[in-house]
Input
Amino acid sequence: MGKSVLFDVTIIGGGPAGLYSAFYSGLREMKTKIIEFQPQLGGKIHVYPEKMIWDVGGQPPMQGAKLIDQLVAQGLTFQPEVVLNEKIEAIAKNEEGLFELKGSSGEVHLSKTVIVAVGGGILNPQKLQIEGAERFEVSNLNYTVKSLERFKNKTVLISGGGNSAIDWANELEPIAKQVYITYRKPELAGHEAQVTQLMNGSAICCLETNITRLIASDDRDAIEFVELTHQGTGETQILSIDEMIINHGYERDISLLGNSPLNIDIADDYYIAGTPSSESSVEGLFAAGDILQHEAKLNLIAGTFQDAANAVNKAKQWIQPDARKVAMVSSHNEVFKKRNKELVKQLFV
Output
């Protein structure tokens, strides 16, 4: 393996915080790398690509998938190096004061500064604990809803009673043939308004029940029937289904900070305890997005953009103390002069 290339800033995480960090660091003429565990950029928004997002300033409501496309396009404006399918397992510093990011591939990534933008951690859906269930993941056992069209005019069983499960039930109720919800507790755990909407619709709730058996179709390729068992009475019922969605929450991998030998201050056993300027307790290490916690924190996608810009500005000054505190605004920035001319031409084509 050849010697690692040194970057001005390496961003761990390719979600909204990481992508805007990449854009802004490019604006500040920093040599930038993004490292993302998943096979694609976009972060947690991939969990709800069909959901409408309303709270990004200056943007009309749009589906998550469209927002991902726009964030990625913006994040790649200045052509950062992008490494996908790479889990950073630990962050350390060498004798020269450079950060060493140890990847699961065996590569050690070198960087002058680091921005941690891993959100709530690496999220993996909690799988259905029924023997043989995994073989149906290629047919009709789903752990997320990537397209509402897939469920049109079908009988859908949703397992789970939290906000996400109820939200998907409400989204699918108008377009599916029938929606069932199975939940192990006597009451649904979602927001009151969501629960009220669900109960006023046509969805059928099977409370205090568990999935106890999956019955395959004759060709064994898909689930045709699901057995539900009532926890109190032991009574069973068999549902004929076309699709099943499992929403039992996510397992969160929070090993990165724990494996790192640096003295990083932690809040609530996971988050980086930082400042409103996105600084951590380790010089040269910054944070942006949900992983950052401080007294003025705003946990919105819109808030993550300020985190990212603050982190980049502090990283720039860490490398170059006499650098401007902030980048010049885009409307007067020479770096966009040529691009702006091309955009103006397109307006009049």
